[in-house]
Amino acid sequence: MEKYIKKKQHIGYIVREESVLSGENYKNGLVEIKAEGEKVSKGENVFRYYSNNEDSLKEEIAKLDIEIR
Q: Which of 10, 15, 19, 35 lies 20 to 30 Å (CA to CA) from residue 61?
């Protein structure tokens, strides 16, 4: 059995590549999918584009859901 002895102490740094997605209250057409600080995989979406008439589409879908029930 080998013995390991700690002889020196080193400080290490982790460097990661990130892109800043900016926008004032996301009014640049982006909607947040993942919460701030939530872990994501490489290539995973964190924002999606917002459609100009998305609110009216959501209302129409809700009305249709009620009719279907």
A: 35
